[in-house]
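=== RUN LOG ===
request id: a7f3
mode: sequence -> structure
chains: 1
length: 211
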Amino acid sequence: MINKEFELDRLRTTLRTRGLDTNIVDQIVDKARAEIDNAMSSRLSEAMAAAIAAGVEKRSAEFINDLQPAPNAFQLETESGNTDFSTPPYPMLSRLLKEAKPMADGSGVYKVIPVGSSKTQRPRISDNIFDTQKAIAAQRAEAAKRQYNKMAPAGSKTQFRTATSKQSSEQWVIPAKEKDFTIELSSINSELDQALQEVIISVIREYEEQF
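=== RESULT ===
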């Protein structure tokens, strides 16, 4: 594992042995450090964008909002430490039957439910969100996705289903959603580590050859 500070100290020693003035050496090393840091910052932004794109692909605002650069490492992590935001199946029947109407024969209750339209539009999560904007956009998209809208778009044909207390709860279930980002985050961090080593080697070598 290549260490930035160790390599900069090695560059400092190399330049001194070549007879360069101490002040000049310090300036060169500071410039090399700045180049490395700028390149690392750029790679980290690219990695964050890739992680956000993975969150967008699986439509997980929770993952996107939890993302952050690791405080003491050139890596990405989640604030919670969790990388699996999958959700289990969610039975909806009891919730749907709130304020339901009694059946004519008194044998139960029912409620007519609008379940979609012919022109359903999937809420969009922007793939260009970052920092505060990424959190706000993702939260709004998730809220829009969950919104229960009884007004169908103009020109569409609303579809209806009837929920009743006689039905099995298995007839009204939101399917489980796989939102595990363990592999994606591990791959992104592995690429970050490789990029860091390549940046350090490239910058140090450039200054060694230049002076």
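=== NOTES ===
Helices lie at 4-17, 22-57, 61-66, 93-96, 131-146, 182-210.
The CA atoms of residues 68 and 77 lie 6 Å apart.
=== END ===
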